[in-house]
Task: inverse folding
């Protein structure tokens, strides 16, 4: 979440894996909106393989999994977020709102005061 020139990136680790972060949250939202991993990937401008790897990593990090795939024909195929996925997504959004309150803290102001608007060119 961007807060002026200083922004926070909320990431949740699971061992050495990244269980959840802004990109995976965007993917969960897109899967909810589009009902499939491939349609969500297209909407986000990523390959199906990349989306599938992100879903797989999330599912390996959470118990029960966040996304379930639906096999078969007709309208009952594709993917959807599980109740756990919905809960995790809501918890992440709540954590984002709480993290945004850091902008009112003195430490944030001190960091912002010393942060360049752009990095210096490489030496």
Result:
């Amino acid at each position: 979440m961007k807060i002026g020139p200083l922004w926070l990136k909320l990431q949740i680790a699971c061992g050495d894996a990244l269980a959840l972060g802004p990109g995976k949250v965007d993917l969960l939202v897109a899967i909810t909106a589009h009902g499939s991993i491939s349609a969500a990937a297209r909407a986000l401008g990523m390959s199906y393989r990349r989306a599938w790897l992100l879903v797989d990593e999330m599912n390996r990090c959470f118990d029960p999994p966040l996304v379930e795939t639906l096999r078969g024909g007709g309208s009952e195929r594709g993917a959807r977020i599980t109740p756990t996925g919905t809960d995790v997504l809501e918890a992440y959004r709540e954590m984002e709102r709480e993290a945004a309150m850091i902008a009112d803290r003195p430490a944030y102001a001190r960091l912002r005061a010393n942060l360049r608007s752009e990095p210096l060119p490489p030496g």
